[in-house]
Amino acid sequence: MKLKCIRLYLIVAVIAFSSGLQLMAQMQPAKRIAPKVIKGVTLKASTDDVWAYISSPGDFYASIEEVKDLKCSGNGQGAQISFSIYGDKSRMQEISVLNSQERMIVYYITQSDYYNQPLVYRILVGRDEDNAYVQFEGIFSTGDTAQDKKIEKLIISEWLLMQKNLEKKFN
User: What pLDDT does residue 143 have?
Assistant: First the structure.
């Protein structure tokens, strides 16, 4: 009888202990990070035309003449894109969100020569009176002001390539 009580006590203790570990091991919700770079451009086109162009990453990146060695697998959420540009010879990114209703595309940069932490680009297409407006956001966090400034400069240079391409296509 004593042996059965000890076994029962051990079983209850193991279950209670392992339940406690499962509760402690749960992930905390992600901390929301505000964009550090916000840029935009007004285009003489409909939002539908601009969205159709931007939401087709293979065509969009292929038309940026500074992009080299482009590979794109897929055209929607989960699409993998790799290419090289000046300053970033081994870029790899993935479309983590493609929302046609909100006209929003989010790229998660999985590999970059100039930053080895998570980096996110969000592109939104909206209206500016009779024109389309494209807003670009660079979202990242280093905790180092000097590093932030360097990355901001590189992100802005990438945005300028995208902006030039968009203006060439639509203005």
Answer: 84
